[in-house]
Model the fold of this input.
Amino acid sequence: MAKILMKGNEAIGEAAIKAGCLHFFGYPITPQNELPEYLSKRLPQVGGKYIQTESEVATSNMIFGAAGVGVRVMTSSSSPGISLMSEGLSYLAGAELPAVIVNMMRAGPGLAGILPAQSDYAHATRGTAHGDFELIVLAPSSVQEAVDLTILSFELAEKYRNPVMLLGDGMIGQMMEPVEFPDVEVGPPMKAADWALTGCKGREPRLVSSLFLDPVELNEKNHERFARYKVIKDNEARHELYNCDEPYDVLITAFGVMSRVCKSAIQELKGQGINVGMFRPITVKPFPSEQCSAAIFKSKRVLDVEMNMGQMLVDIQLAANGKREVDFMGKCGGLTPSIEDVIESVHSTLAKIKGGVA
Amino acid sequence: MRKIFSHTEGMITDPMHYCPGCTHGIIHRLVGETLIELGIRERAVGISPVGCSVFTYKYFRCDMFQASHGRAPAVATGAKRCRPELVVFCYQGDGDLAAIGTSEIIHAANRGEKITCIFVNNAIYGMTGGQMAPTTIPGQRTSTTPGGRNVAEDGFPLKMSEILSQLQTPGYIARVSMHSPAEIIKAKQIVRKAFEYQVSNTCFSFVEFLSTCPTNWGMSPVDSLNWMKTNMLPYYPLGEHKIPEKHEGGSR
Ligand SMILES: Cc1ncc(C[n+]2csc(CCOP(=O)(O)OP(=O)(O)O)c2C)c(N)n1
Ligand code: SF4
Done:
């Protein structure tokens, strides 16, 4: 299929259709409105259903109902709306249902701002909701990658029976870039699942539930789920290394669109005779810790750059394991660290290396 | 000898966890019988709430969800919109439906979701130990209204059937009571009608049951039935509050 120029939010909507998702439930919020708007037009054209909900609380429970009857389902929202979805996300994980949730992050906390940010890394990767569970979280850095990861999200959700979040910095949804889609009109439907509630004709009734009042059973369930998370980490963790072939003193860590600003800074620094490497997690959950450690240990010091107050920093520090210092530079509130900001921070990290500051 | 009464195939025969004299069990039975009479058990999906009826899924012999507190109509919406061939019903208590889940039930009704909601109004939070519910009647003592429900501070009880009947969207809304065999027989007809409206893809349907909670009301089962008749019936009038045929607006 030829490349077409598309806005990120719309491209994600189309990618969902290409992945065979024909059901979308959502509540309006900036900066992701183009996604539901696009699907409200497109889904009926391909025999799908778009439903505007009364709240994100309801949304998260509607996708629970949709996933439970064994169909591919997606919702999208932005930070404050994702907070309200916490309930459904926990129940989806507890009942082991596949669903894809898009978060086009805006600045926080509270109502805060509508400008792009990376304000929900911690929410997505750690404190999503009550109980022992994790989401699988994918963080695209371009519109094409958002398309590819949307399709992957559905695959992972179904393979591991766990909700998957596509975590985009607001600008991923807003920017236009050339994209290519798989050469299908609509992806195939989800395979008939032996847990889906489809009516009990010819079989015993089924139950979709997150309730386990027997502590031994619940303990086992949660251990089983976390064993699965280990398998996901071993097999599905994805990352990008940039400019890491030449020796480097400083390794930049960044995710999402922030990594693209860092790449430009790395190119400029090259012109100044300074080689800087970059590590970018693509799955921010599971975090590719071993791969990150390997890149970190080739450096003398690390610079973590984010559009927040340092939410990924703790993952980087864990990967550095006390063996390398990690500096942090971040802007938030809708501001994005500029190429110049990154270059300046690299220089200050280099100065710390030279000055022997531990 | 001819067998004139037996278990319904719509339900599993395990003993129920409900307290003696609780009318939740009768309501289950009416729904279970309806699933069989209408031949819909094998395409039914029920949704159990949070409350005393959380274990509803153990009793109906059909596919079941266990939903979060108050959200059964949202779960039902998700299920029904994605698989319209299913017959989807919610079973909810009054805390579940009329407090935490008020938004979900109103919007599901207003969208005209082709689902059936069984609403059990026992004027109290049963499972959590007898606190005030949105349907607790004025002056009624509960564990959080030791002096009786004070309408000046707690407001008046919500009449969900009347509230939902106000919606322009066509729907079938009825209130029934479990206080006597005659009323139970009437209730059965209404439950059947409610499911029929879904099966014929006509409209949203909702049946409110006045039900007892002997344990948290602190009464014997018989006293509970009498208390319900004397105190709840005057505030919560029985009958069909809305039928789709009479409706003038909407798109039918
Ligand atoms: C989000 C959330 N809040 C509170 C609770 C605690 N809770 C469990 S059951 C219940 C009340 C249910 O009462 P009702 O709906 O009236 O049903 P009944 O038990 O009377 O049948 C509450 C508040 C919960 N499980 N989840
Ligand atoms: S606590 Fe009340 S509502 Fe719950 S089972 Fe007992 S009698 Fe029924």
Q: What stands out?
A: The mean pLDDT of chain A is 97. Residues B 50-53, 69, 93-96, 120, 122, 124-128, 133 surround thiamine diphosphate (ligand 1) (CB under 6 Å). The longest strand of chain A covers residues 100-105. DSSP finds twelve helices and 15 strands in chain A.
